Amino acid sequence: MQEHKHQLRVTYQDTDKMGVVYYANYYRWFEIGRTEYLRALGMSYKEVEEKGILIPVVESHCSYHSPARYDEIVTVVTEVRELKRSTIIFDYQVLRDEDQELLATGHTIHVFVNDEFETVSLKKESPAVWELLN
Question: Please, where are the H alpha helices in the chain?
């Protein structure tokens, strides 16, 4: 899978006093994007965790280009930039559906760990998840 697109409607709770989406909500949308990315591949985050693989965020970044506002429909475009045995990097774009304006870009870096938060090789620990992401 090259990329996955997921639409969201901006809710009132997503906005701040200025009527625009509060900056931290983009990170929540990134999480929704990668969760739905995995689901579209055929495995939920829950199923990955049930296989003993956790995928914590170790670094995140977001650049804001234009504000999203209440009741707009936005699309979160998610793709894997890089997959290594013990790390994965997801890239994101948030676009306003009405005019396809780029609202934000970002990335998150994750490590694959076991239940004791020890770094593991995904290829070795869970070949099924490795193959799914490749």
Answer: 25-41, 45-50, 122-125, 127-133
Q: Verify whether residue 99 is a known catalytic residue.
A: no
* 64: confidence class by pLDDT, cuts 50, 70, 90: very high
Quote the pLDDT of residue 1.
61
Among the listed residues 16, 91, 97, 115, the single catalytic one is 16
Question: b/e per residue, 42-68, with b = 16+ CB within 10 A?
Answer: ebebeebeeeebbbeeeebebeeeebb
Q: Which residues contact 29 (CB under 8 A, 6 or more apart)?
A: 8, 74, 76, 92, 94
- Return the SS3 of 38: helix
Contact 111, 69 (CB under 8 A): no
Residue 110 has pLDDT above 70, yes or no: yes
User: How large is the average pLDDT for residues 113-124?
Assistant: 96
pLDDT at 134: 87
The domain that holds 110 is classified in CATH as 3.10.129.10
Q: List beta partners, residue 69.
A: 20
